[in-house]
Amino acid sequence: MASQVRNVGIPGVEPPKTVCSDKKCPWHGDVRVRGLILRGTVIKTKMQRTAVVEREYLYYDKKYKRYEKRRSRIHAHNPPCINAQPGDEVIIGETRPLAKTVHFVIVGVVKRRTEGS
Ligand SMILES: [Zn+2]
Known about the structure:
0% helix, CATH 2.40.50.1000
């Protein structure tokens, strides 16, 4: 049902204040979040309803016994009711494939971009 707000089942994420009719929205559409739940920063939103989210993580290098920083970019669906902007810190959840390169969806914004960053 498109007019109903569903519970995504992720603690600490509030449902968006506006309602949308996007069927690929985790709150108002029919995609189900299952699998990985990650946190990252929105890099760009140039695609229609899709954002590029970058994640930085530490990788342990056995030979040198040190951690090194690695980063990866993930395509995530950006529903109109959330409308994340570049610089926002978001929680993304794994879903069924939504497009050729998209199998994550933004479930909420943790921190809106602050002026000057
Ligand atoms: Zn929505």
